[in-house]
Amino acid sequence: MKNIAILGLGAMGSRMAHNFLKQGYNLNVWNRSPEKCKRLVKQGAIQHLTPKEAAKSADIVFAMLTDDDASRDVWLNEATGALSGLKKNAIAIECSTLSFAYCLELSSILKDKGIQFLDAPVIGSRPQAEACQLIHLVGGDKSTLDKSHEILSINSSAVHYIGKVGSGMSMKLAVNGLFGIQVAALSEVLGMLNQLGLDRDHAVNILNELPTTSPALKGIGLAIIANNYAPLFPIDLVEKDFSYLLRVAESKSAKTPVVSTVLDVYKTAQKSGFGQDNIAGLVQLYL
Fold this sequence. Notes:
CATH superfamily of the largest domain: NAD(P)-binding Rossmann-like Domain
Strand content: 5-15%
Number of strands: 9
Helix content: 40-55%
Shape: globular
Largest sheet: 9 strands, mixed
CATH topology of the largest domain: Rossmann fold
Number of domains: 2
CATH class of the largest domain: Alpha Beta
Number of helices: 12
């Protein structure tokens, strides 16, 4: 399977595409803003004007998009969507972070057309994508994963099979929820310590020495010390993922009072003008 396509060349998709080219794959690309394809075309990619055209010659089609609405348009648009261009028995892989319900809907539509599907969202951001150190959380048929494992491994340090369709997406939402809750707690605690007269940076350094601080949260602490809120994981996307997480929890009558409360915190950050800042920028609500 040397012919692949990537739909969506944002911060993550463009880096994944670059890694595929380095490994010698025949790469078809599409992006809503065509100019983002230029660098990859210079490296050997073939640019297309629609997702449908990009998908036509591909054995595997990846999508890395912002949300449900973007994914629905890219895959299912009647005139330009990738679904109408996919070959029978092609494999469609969604690497975007989407809602659980939409993921199941997309899978069902593709299955009816004879298309194999994996939800394979990634853990990691731009640095991990550049270093081929992403982690895929995969839902779908195991035999489909077996066919795709080699290609998924190009951009990742690990490929975890979670279970049936939708399970990769639900696990990704859970991971982002857990991370977002930690960041909200850290931000709140630092604000309290600041009010008590403790230096912010000293407090972060102490917390980072303790076993209660996760490796990911240590990175957030270092970003806060550096006042570095460049959007690796923007608060706007954090709020979107929390909304999806709360939606699936409610659909299963799962109790998630902490998720609900923390979602409100991120919404407050958006209203305060911090939506384009990295998740670490949440601390600005408290300092």
